[in-house]
Design goal:
The protein has 9 helices and 10 strands. It is α/β, with parallel strands linked by helices and about 260 residues long. The strands form 2 sheets. The protein has a 6-stranded mixed β-sheet with strand order 6-7-8-3-9-10, with helices on both faces. It has a 4-stranded antiparallel β-sheet with strand order 2-1-4-5, with helices on one face. It binds adenosine-5'-triphosphate (ATP). Keywords: ATP-binding, Nucleotide-binding, Transport.
């Protein structure tokens, strides 16, 4: 396990009643943008929820930002330094975008003298500057998602966890959001769960592919692309190259029986 890792997970098992969502997973991540990929039900949300400290592991060890997250006090300290966008999140519909993001800044203990500027900067960074004083209930679904991203980055987190952040964003916003991700990943450890391979091709330095609660592939995006081999189609796009790598890695992980087995690396 890399000693400089900001996320170090060993033997992580998460069970929901009889379902094993994560099966003794080992994972180590450092700064950069990590695309978290996998089929429906692979365990992506279960993993992000444990990393966000909102769900407890059934067993295993989870070290975040150099601290074991098992202790209550440690979790509180970690939360100040992380940002989290859940797949679905609640908000007071009568809050303005500014109030919504400021409330999270307060929860994260952003110093009061710095909070107003931090809120404005986060809202501007997601392209909602002109709607900062609009009430949440008047926003479109994609705008609510962007407000959700703003609350996740308001404390300049060292660990940023985004569960399907591009769902509902229009194409222009997706392009801008990917640029923001790349910028955030120069300093922070960013984990983005997504089904959109375009997100991975455009914004992720690394990929972790999970299936049936186990790691099927982990490495630089270029390595996943290389696994897919040369394009059969002339002028194949970077997106189709990631798709081929994804499929090849999953098939190798499943083996000839078609069932998941040990990870590739
Ligand atoms: N609250 C729950 N109760 C029971 N089973 C659950 C619960 N949450 C998740 N599961 C199960 O755990 C497994 C992993 O689910 P999880 O949501 O982590 O997958 P995912 O990779 O995020 O899926 P998707 O791509 O569909 O969002 C699935 O089999 C799912 O049905």
């Amino acid at each position: 396990m890399n000693p400089s890792a900001t996320v170090a997970v060993t033997g992580l098992t998460v069970r929901h009643r009889r379902t094993v969502a994560l099966d003794a997973l080992d994972l180590s991540l450092g700064p950069g943008v990590h695309g978290l990929l996998g089929p429906n039900g692979a365990g992506k949300t279960s993993l992000i929820r444990v990393l966000a400290t909102v769900a407890a592991p059934s067993s295993g060890r989870v070290e975040l930002l150099g601290t074991d997250s098992a202790g209550h006090g440690e979790r509180t300290a970690i939360r100040r330094r992380l940002g989290y966008l859940p797949q679905e999140f609640g908000y007071y519909p009568a809050f303005t975008v500014r109030e919504f993001v400021a409330y999270v800044a307060w929860l994260k203990e952003v110093p009061a003298d710095r909070a107003p500027a931090a809120v404005e900067r986060a809202v501007r960074r997601v392209g909602l500057g002109d709607r900062i004083d609009a009430r949440m209930k008047t926003l479109s679904g994609g705008m609510v998602r962007r407000a959700g991203i703003a609350q996740a980055i308001v404390n300049e987190p060292e660990l940023l966890l985004l569960d399907e952040p591009t769902a509902g964003l229009d194409p222009e916003q997706r392009v801008e959001f990917r640029a923001l991700l790349r910028e955030l990943g120069t300093r922070a450890t960013v984990v983005v769960s997504t089904h959109l391979v375009e997100d991975v091709a455009a914004a992720c330095t690394d990929v972790a592919l999970i299936e049936a609660g186990r790691l099927a592939f982990q490495g630089p995006t270029a390595e996943l692309v290389a696994l897919g081999g040369d394009s059969a189609e002339p002028g194949g796009s970077p997106t189709s190259a990631v798709e081929r790598g994804y499929t090849t890695a999953l098939r190798a992980h499943r083996g000839p029986t078609g069932r998941a087995r040990e990870s590739l690396r």
